[in-house]
Design a protein that fits this description.
267 residues, alpha/beta, 3 domains, five-stranded mixed β-barrel, 7 strands, 39% helix, 24% strand, Surf1/Surf4, membrane, transmembrane
Length: 267
């Protein structure tokens, strides 16, 4: 039983070490990319279907072109006023591609915006005409099993699905999208996210706790085994010899403070 418990603790401890490694890698990406100078879109993403999460996440780039089409809403997103949606707008780039921009959080409940019934004119409007946009790169999100597209609302920012909705599947960037930083000329937008915290979390302490649990369990099992052995062999020569040695050590050490207090109380 101790072996099974120890294996489980080791697995859980290693899992916490892996979580810590992931958190530290994210901190390294933030430090390297978040405040770096923006790069041109064609330089940063030479292929529209490619994206290197480790090297490019949070990296800033400049996209020039024009917004077009109706916006999409990525529903069930937490924000400052509860659950709302992220506003996703397509931008036709100067080289003819289509790049998706997350223009911030809006307090629109995705379930209330299902179908084509929600009023797009009530949402923050992007600037008209040519625009230069600074964004931070994020990877295309995976599809959510059991969740489907409802009109102009999507369950995740899955770029191939957004491209299909807009009818630009062969032209769109499907590896990464951009979180809005700024626009020139400026337009309306939703609530933009704050800089992520540089916090690796309590994973190291949790990992060490699992290994401490193994030591505690081992001590407990050893103590219980010793008690059981002494109980089953109370009259044996080995147990009597152990008792004699314990009594001899106590005699040489003298009475403890607790024993002296007990003697005074008895007197």
């Amino acid at each position: 039983m101790l072996l099974v418990f120890s294996i489980a603790c080791v697995l859980l401890g290693n899992w916490q070490f892996e979580r810590r490694a992931e958190a530290r890698a994210e901190i390294a990406r933030i430090d390297a990319n978040y405040d770096a100078a923006p790069a041109p879109l064609s330089e940063e993403l030479p292929r529209r279907d490619a994206f290197d999460e480790d090297a490019q996440k949070w990296r800033q780039l400049v996209v020039e072109g024009e917004y077009f089409g109706e916006p999409a809403l990525a529903r069930n997103r937490p924000g400052p006023q509860g659950v709302g949606s992220n506003l996703i707008q397509a931008l036709r780039t100067s080289d003819g591609g289509v790049f998706f921009v997350d223009r911030g959080w809006v307090p629109v409940d995705g379930s209330a915006a299902e179908g084509d019934e929600f009023d797009a004119s009530a949402l923050p409007a992007p600037p008209d005409g040519p625009v230069s946009v600074v964004v931070r790169l994020r990877a295309s999100e995976p599809a959510i099993p059991g969740r489907t597209t409802e009109g102009r609302t999507v369950a995740s920012i899955e770029l191939p699905e957004l491209a299909r909705m807009l009818g630009v599947a062969g032209e769109a960037y499907t590896g990464a999208y951009g979180m809005l930083v700024s626009e020139d000329p400026p337009g309306e937008h939703g609530v933009l996210p704050a800089k992520p915290e540089r916090d690796e979390g309590p994973h190291l302490s949790y990992a060490l706790q699992w290994y401490v649990f193994i030591v505690i369990a081992g001590i407990g099992v050893a103590y219980a085994a010793r008690r059981e052995y002494r109980g089953l062999n109370a009259g044996s020569a080995a147990v009597r010899e152990q008792d004699r040695r314990i009594a001899e050590r106590r005699r040489r050490r003298g009475p403890s403070d607790a024993e002296e207090e007990d003697a005074l109380i008895d007197a």
